[in-house]
Amino acid sequence: MNSIQISNVVINQTKSLYSLNDLHKASGGQKKHEPHQWFRNVQTQDLIAEIEAQGGQAVQTVNGGTRRGTYVCKELVIAYGMWINAAFALQVIRAFIAAQEQGSLKISPAQKQQIQAAVMARHHRTGEHWQEIYRKLHSFLHVNSYHEIDTRDFERAIQFLGSIPDTPAPVQALQFSEREITNFGTVVYYLDWATRQLHALSEPLKQLGAHKQGVAAWTLWHEAQNWLQASRESLERVAPQMQDSWYRRHLADNFERMNNLPYLN
């Protein structure tokens, strides 16, 4: 990471972000140019939103330590300089140009195209959003944009994009044997029969003075109807897929027995 110095003030850096507090000091430190005043601008907020929408990190706040303060990306550094005045903006631009000329070589246009292709390949392979892939790549290489990747880090970038991200294991569908399905059908039949008996007992219980128990018997029958009907529909849906004729016939017998139960309302 190359050192940036403006007006004899060293601009502290962290992960390709630059100290806005140091820039304010380099500009003269006037109160009207304090960073929080600049952040209030609608244009500043729009610029931050656009940088983040493209997968870049625009702003980071460091709390505590000797380098605490607000750090921003290179684009925002230049925007901040232009907000102050043209002379300071020119100092900022020239400082970055000098640092770039002294720094390591960046990836070529052809290598950038390979990065883009690898990002899209990972997107199609894993389903990750392409902006999220760029964000992870930038974080992995500690850069604000893939345009800033050093030539020496190109292979690492390609290997990273070719890696498979941590994803939850696919959930396997529940499977039941035909015997279990048939048993389920038998249980549904007996529950249907039992709740009908409760319905029949409801009024006699009330007449005997057990009003609470009579109401409970009717409620159990009534509330069970939707669940029993849904369970039967599920069984009828899977019945044609059953291969064993004995289990299929046994399940059909349960349906027939349910059909023969007395109708209640």
TrEMBL record:
Record domain KilA-N: where: 1-99
InterPro entries noted in UniProt: KilA/APSES_HTH (IPR018004), KilA_N (IPR017880)
A Pfam family it matches: KilA-N
Superkingdom of origin organism: Bacteria
Name of the protein in its database record: KilA domain protein
